[in-house]
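Below: protein 1.
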Amino acid sequence: MEFEAVIGLEVHIQLLTNTKIFCSCSTDFGAPPNTHICPVCMGMPGVLPVLNKKVLDYAIKLGLALNCKINKFSRFARKNYFYPDLPKGYQISQYELPILEGGHVEIFVNGEYKKIGLERIHMEEDAGKTIHRPDGSYVDFNRAGVPLLEIVSLPVMHSPQEAGEYLRSLRRIVRYLGICDGNMEEGSLRCDANVSIRPKGQTKLGTKTELKNMNSFRHVEKALEYEIQRQIEVVEDGGKIIQQTRLWDEKTGMTKPMRSKEEAYEYRYFPDPDLVPIFIDDEWIERIKDEVPELPRQKLERFVEEYGLKEEDARVLVEEKSLADYFEEAAKGYKKPQSIANWILSELLGYLNKENKNIEDTLIKPNHIRELVELIDSGLISGKIAKTVFGKMYETAKSPKQIVEEEGLVQITDRSQIEGIVDEVIKANPKAVEQYKSGKKNTIGFFVGQVMKKTKGKANPKLVNEILASKLEEL
């Protein structure tokens, strides 16, 4: 029997607000433990939460970007459970009246676009962080009360690859919107996966397991691959899938049972009596709509249409908004934007990736990329010399023109000068001349190499080839 996987993802994104969702404590990451806390986020008696309006703005912005229904009326609910990192004994979340419903995330997989439907998006506060050490377990409450949006997809993904691309697409969008930095390694984007299997062709959902402890896209894909295969083997052996939460173990490459999976009623949700309901009017939505930037898919299509870029190149450039902006600045007013893109993608990203750096870290100004391409196109330097110049640009932040002048790297285009060097090379290599005359025409490559060596790569390659071909044929 052939089985089909059914996957739904629950993604939590930490919002880039300066303060927490219900108090004025800082949200800065990496502060010493328990230094960004107050009576409100610690759940002390006699204090009341006050909603951070920026959280609502960011939720509306995401809803507009993902084509969600923005509920004009919503409210917070208390999600009751006991855990060491939850100081109040409940989490302020949303339940029956979330701020956003529906919508979709568009992914590109197997050469085509697919819309992954969303069930809902709601606001909630983060919990603290439990730290386990050999000498005991500790809780850092700095994270308690940090604002989150939980994005719940419909169970419409059928492969780990689709799930991975969904996460990448979602991260691109929230980064473009400027509402979350999307750093999984710092916990600002976290993902739980619900997965089940069913015989192919059936529509009824099987018993699901929830997967946790996945802190990279690759871990999500690997955990899903393992869990799907595990469930298939259980069913084929005559067993039954147990509804449970399982932890991904990176070291063993396996998922391990953690606890039985809770149902919603076990959390005893009820409206939070300390927070008033939320009313959103059309004017508010229109104001936020003006703040929504051009999104990755729209930018990709524009890069292909406006700049004539190859789609695969445009796809890489729009991966990060800062990289796309860098390209646009570099290509401004230049007739060959594809050449600009080539240098950014092959050379600049090559250097940055080697040092594990981002585009923001480069010393090279965007207009210096354009200047370098102009030097090549004008014939002042060759492509080979340009690579040398680029290396010095990367190290020093100098302009290509300055480097070319200082290093004396201007390309030799004087025909008579090149002819003289070609004559010397031919005279010094009689054996190679005989080989060429005997029909081994590819020997011309040897002569080109010798000329370039003599000129330290400065001779115009096109002119060198032309002169060599002419002189060798005359012999």
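Below: protein 2.
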Amino acid sequence: MNKLLIGLICLLALAQAGCEKDGFAYKLYEPTIDDVDSIYLSATDKMMIADGQATLNFIVEAYRTVRLPSGKDSLEFIDYRKLPSGSLKIIEERSGREVGLSYSTTTIPFDTVKFHAEIGGTKSATKPVALRAKPADPAKVYVDVIFHVWELNTTHSSYDVSSYQPVKLEQLKEGIAYMNSVINNQVGKSPNGAKANIEFRLATKNQAGQTLPEPGFNRIIYSDNVKVNPLATIFNVSDFIAFINTNKATMIWNPKQYLNVQVIPSGANNSMGTVYPAKQLAPQPGQQAILGVTGTAVNDDDFILDYANACVGLPRTMLFPGIERKIELFRFIGTFYGLYTPSYSASRLYSDLCYDTRKFDGQDKRNSYSFALKVGLDNEKYVADNAMDDSRYPTLLNSITADQVARMRAVMARCPGRMNAKNQ
């Protein structure tokens, strides 16, 4: 035993001796300005509103050329932030002005501004950005919202008092308030962000004109009675949809007066079955047809009164987002008003029928759903920030664009079943 112990000690001593540097000076690679021989610059958008709030937050990447053992050259990423301060310069070429890592303006001295990045004697390709005038704010409108909140009966066998969380009025207030701030351009600095001038508010009265005990809150207690198949062991979204359609006189309030939001027990991975607008009133002089809405309505009563056409389906989990996360409702409500997720689609003009939104292809291997940084359809990088982005994945969700505002307002004014805006 003693011989074994002595042997182990000797081996340990030899191993430690072998780990000594023996005088070799180890040093991590530190980049220098002269190492940089390639620079990538993304202006992050092809256009920008000149309102002083919209901002281009440039993305810059620096590279050096290294020779591989195979004899081929390869570009290796360099963290330009480790270079001496002031090494990176971003220049607006039309004015010759150095602008730093972000750019905004309140004037339109040129129809297009042009940027390049430079480090030492190396320059990036020039990236042009078209300037747009700030759109005039549309007239303010109001939308009364009623949340039909489905709560499991406490007598149901699956109800667990230790884990079940009932929805509270404070959650609805928080969700509405944050949505209003996003769509009215009070949160983000997106290059084409705009103000919808819409105020969603919790309804104060029911269909009979009686004051609601809790504004915007219609609590519905459910049990096995909603199941299409009484023998089913779980509840499906389709069960709630069928029950709503069977009892629509009480469960879908007048769509011309209210925005009906059905808060259904489900996760955010469910599309919830809300359909896009099917009909629009014929355009009046000065109006254009709403892209993607193929039917023509006879009048403002020409719509189907059912869940798919007159309700917003909201997964219940959206009201429980987790610690330090916002309650973000707009993606589901935006769908009701004709907006699409800004990602690649071959079936729609501009993918989402809005020219000024930034889109990416989810099938492009450069786009990871683990990060908000995306590579757009134009091969330029940007940080996803649109409120219609898929909220299951990283994105800022803090803005909608001028074209999205115009589309949403048009649907709200001219698509029966969605025409629930009020002037006061």
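The mean pLDDT is 94.
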